[in-house]
Automatic annotation (TrEMBL), chains A, B:
Domain of life: Bacteria
UniProt cross-references to Gene3D superfamilies, sorted A to Z: Dihydrofolate Reductase, subunit A
Name listed for the protein in its UniProt record: Dihydrofolate reductase family protein
Boundaries of every Bacterial bifunctional deaminase-reductase C-terminal domain copy: 8-195
InterPro entries: DHFR-like_dom_sf, RibDG_C, Riboflavin_Biosynth_HTPR
Amino acid sequence: MSRLRVHNLAISLDGFATGEGQSLEAPFGHADGRLMEWFFPTRTFVSMSGHESEAVGTGTTGLDDEFASRWGHGIGAEIMGRNKFGPQRGPWQDHEWEGWWGPEPPFHSPVVVLTHHERPDLVLGDTTFFFRSLTPADALALATELAGGLDVRLGGGPTVVREFLEADLVDHLHLVVVPIVLGRGERLWDGLEGLEERFDIESTASPSGVVHVVLSRRPR
Amino acid sequence: MSRLRVHNLAISLDGFATGEGQSLEAPFGHADGRLMEWFFPTRTFVSMSGHESEAVGTGTTGLDDEFASRWGHGIGAEIMGRNKFGPQRGPWQDHEWEGWWGPEPPFHSPVVVLTHHERPDLVLGDTTFFFRSLTPADALALATELAGGLDVRLGGGPTVVREFLEADLVDHLHLVVVPIVLGRGERLWDGLEGLEERFDIESTASPSGVVHVVLSRRPR
């Protein structure tokens, strides 16, 4: 059975998955890069982004990378919200924006972008973006078909993850709790009272200061 | 220097330190005992409450008890909110209510109860309750004097802890993050944006499933 998985979703101690005031210049709003500082030094991020440097070399391979690297294993397609694809809101003014990732996006698979404003499919390297207005269940059905028997990754942002959790479609949720208090932004947990009844939950503290929390859907 | 310490303050994944609908019958509201399930089997709780039984014997002595037991070390006085002392609100109808703890409360020290409705001091065993209407700073000054050189414990509830954190009076905050999503109740983190700038934060995952998070005030 193909599963729906979320990986590397970072939240603050107070449960915000992104800050207030997202824009092209500040994709995480006032949180800046603070939710992802644990991620930047990992080999997974370095090899994904080409950010190899004297400071990080080819990247760390400790506990944080162990969790981060699971991102790509056995994934055949991704679903993401439009806000992850780009900072624009409302109808597309043109089709010049082609995502944050340049000509070779790191997905290497079909990507279903959920948006009320459809546009033509976009092929970049070995990633194809499909822009569709679909319910969570229908988006999962499409992505599962595109994944060809592999798992589907739910790439965020937090609003999309929450919608899929509310619809009880998520099988695996890897959170990273970062020891900061953001105070404002997009809350992950709103509307999810009692979520623990459907999941086994395991926490692992990392020497970097973050805590990896994995929620695994119990058999239905 | 006498420090102000908070111990064993449990919060849900979504940051609620108590549920909705607190009453005499449900001191944690709809959270019931779920925030304290990690605590009940510990030797610290068993010896405090006299709940020794065949099921728990004299209590567990693992990681959770290691954290829980720090509650009493080097403490000379406690400060608590009136909601921790009892379920009544508004003016005292009478003085019959003498707390949840019976004739031998587990504090063994002076306790300053913060209330807008003062009443005569109450002596129970070797615990004396002082009912005072004071600002956080003045309450701490009184408790520090009563503690005779030892530390002061801030006993909760969450509203009181948040007020003392806002006033930057807390030196040590031990939280226990319980893997449940409460959805409603009293939030610990509201109004505390940027708290991490004043604290070192260390997380330890327990085999029981909770995560102990210790915030230590940086030198001023």
